[in-house]
What does this fold into?
Amino acid sequence: MNHSKRSLANLPKTVHGGQAWKSEGVEDYSHNLNPLGPPGCLSDIVAGALEGIGHYPDDSSAELKDTISKAFSVGVENVMVGAGSSEVIRNFPHAFLERGDAVLVNSPSFAEYGQQCRVVGAKIATNNLSEEEDFRMDRSKVSEAVRSGIKALYICNPNNPTGRIEPKNKILDIVKECRDNGVLAFLDETLLELVPGCKEKSCASEVKRYDNLVVAGSLTKSFAIPGIRIGFGFADPALVEEMDKVRTTWNVGQIEQTTANLLIRDHMDYVENAARMMAIESKEMRSRLAEIGFPVGDVSDSFFYFNSLKSLGVKCAEFQKLMLERKIMVRDCASFGEPFEWFVRFSVKDSERNARFVDAVESSMKEIG
It folds into this structure.
């Protein structure tokens, strides 16, 4: 007897990067983490947090919410906390979407948006981002979808996997149109902290003006701590209250709350330094890749690249295999659907490791012929 929900029938698991840790001696360029790794103070912070594990964590995450509100210039009532931004992503459709509701998701973009919408039985309308338009959102296409009766739309900024950053005024123009048409807007800024000038680019504080906007963030990428699940979100208090109804009780542990509180309060300069370093190294990395004939395109908006290998006559699965032979992991973008089996995603690191990456690319290209 099959007891499965209809919305879960034939629903596959999503595919993500960051798997090189399973292979000894492989340098991982498939994820988008701070290349400096976790800050040196982290072990002391975690050790100090152990004192509190003998009791249940604060279910309201009150101290952490207060710290986040000050760091992002919003009210405490505008803040929610999750076990990674993935929980905020999960809670959004569970709070607001009914079976049959339509949502707009860019393609390619982060797979969890569509996945979690499908879990609740929502229908996915796809906004295809094209190579001809440099994978930027076509404003007229978005407007048409917003006016067509969708319940919500998703924007990832910088977009994963393309690395493109949409300007703040363009995003807020879309959010305003959504509000005027009764549409919710989910904006994922998880990757923005590692971009110089992120505060000017962020829409987090705009939740005070737009009661239809939810903004997600995380410490996973910025502090290179995916193994410690800390995420947060911003929204109008009424939206925060609804999303709080569907979250798991005690969703963020004592260690996570203490760690996040201290990192955000005292160590955001660590993230800012990494962002500045990567912006410099990105230009050098891009220049060297272009010199060897790799189809790298323009300097990335962010700190990772998304490039077609079609001109080399090789799909990414084969290119990934060649790079793994050289102890480097890149992201095969085939999981994002056609035509992205031709595309590779890789991140920027420090000068020394970027030089090794370029050498591996050059060697792989020679083997391709």
Notes: Residues 42-267 form a domain with the Aspartate Aminotransferase; domain 2 fold (CATH 3.40.640.10). The first strand starts at residue 27 and ends at 28.
